[in-house]
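QUALITY CONTROL LOG
STEP: pairwise intake check
CHECKER ROLE: data steward
CRITERIA: each record must contain a sequence immediately followed by its structure tokens, with no blank fields

ENTRY 1 OF 2
RESULT FIELD BELOW
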Amino acid sequence: MDGLSVARNILVQERLLSFLYRRLDRHVTDENLKEIVDRLRRFQSRQLQLLNELIEELEIPMPPSGVRYAEYIVQRGDTLFLIAQRYNTTVANLLRINPEIEDPDNIQVGMKINLPIVLPQPPECCFEYTVRMGDTLFKLAQRFNTTVNELVFFNSISDPDLIYPGRILIIPCDEK
């Protein structure tokens, strides 16, 4: 039985437990005991919420092998949590596509990690560029004689106005 199946089984049991706590709440009349039941129900409600979040994460399908991911070079001050926030994902997703990360609380500056951003096939002639502070797609397009649209396409960038230092971009070669 995989983790998703186990989590779903636990969720079923927790929902039953939630029903039983409601029944208990109706039968307890002593105020001190009622307060304990209320606390139990709040804890159990939080557990249901966490289980739902876990199941949601586990349901995200793994991309097929051979998929090209966007890459990122860890910068000073980065944590997996901050990187996940920056790229609109979760630490769990980052760990899923970076199984070589043994300790999520210990990533090193300069470490290259995959981002959960699937990239299209690169052009025949291209090179990699690591984004630096102050870079914009417009400036990079001018510098490397390409277009913002090509940079957006080849790097699966959702917001062309927002790129972060450390992100490795595919830059098509100047064909002139």
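ENTRY 2 OF 2
RESULT FIELD BELOW
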Amino acid sequence: MEINDSTIKKIRGLIVFAVIVVVAGWNYRSLFALAMKLMGFISPFLLGGVMAFILNVPMRRIEQLLPVKEESRIRRPLSLCLTLVFVIGVLLLVIFVVMPQLFETVLSLQNSIPAFLTGLKEEAERLFAQNPEIADYISGIQIDWKSFLEKVVGFLSEGAGTVLSSTFSAALSIISGMTTFIIALVFAIYILLQKETLSRQIQKLMRAFLPEEITLRTLEVLTLVSDTFSHFLAGQCLEAVILGSMFFLTLSVFRLPYGLLIGVLIAFTALIPMFGAFIGCAIGAFLMLMVKPLDAVIFLIIFFVLQQVEGNFIYPHVVGSSVGLPSIWVLVAVTIGGSAMGIVGMLVFIPLCSVVYAILRGIVNERLEKKRRPKTKHNSTQ
């Protein structure tokens, strides 16, 4: 191998890279702690970027519908204000629709829970009367009440200081969370008001320090990511509205209680892909169980029927088509994302897999096209 300046630079770069990797591997705990500390510093800005991305989806649509000229200076601030009013209005509408239902539910539970417990007690007494061996077994259980009370007193005496410190820590966490949210909201507003300027600055920065081919490819991937995540958010919200409406109409037809409350609750929990509606199912089944156990059984049957319809037909077509991902890969993305990162993984992996699917599809088609070209030329020469 010829030793020249280029080769020396490559060798020097490899040596420096190897030293950095060894040092990082040796001090990985310190580096991880430093990374977590830096994440704490930039977390408000990351949250603000996420908020800006989410708010940009309805804002872009509102800006297109505004009867204001594009060169007008009030177009962007007006669309942002209307977006914030729209989001806050939807939240307030849901609160004012759900709160009366929730208040009535709490009042009805005050009467239904004692009746349920009384019925449960009567059933238990009837069971013990029919099976005396159960009562004999329970009466034979001996509990050292003195030792039990000593443990309770010790726990309370030791836990008093812990509870006080936990309360103080919780108060600090709430204040810190509110501060982070306010900073993130202000940062998101700045991003939305100047998104074109920020986009131009990022492109200029990339072109200044990266080769043109890499810059164009990176911008292409970023555009694909932005479009995919935007379509996913719109499709997820549409699917949640459809599912909530289905439950409200079905429960109303069968004259089951809490139809509106359960419909709105399932619509909100359905924002968690595919499995979020089960949270609303558990709460709805509990509420109906306190009123009439048979209604809870009917509700569970209705839920599993509608869930099958939603999971196999509505969700893959609405969300899958919105991100350009086939139905089978939507299910795979949700399963892997939920196993890896929980709820956040479910929300992220569907558009992420869609981006990977689109990039891989383009690479495969390009390679197949290159393989066909020599054959075509060879056949033409014959």
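INTAKE CHECK: passed for both entries
DESCRIPTIVE NOTE, ENTRY 2: Residues 44-133+159-193 form one domain.
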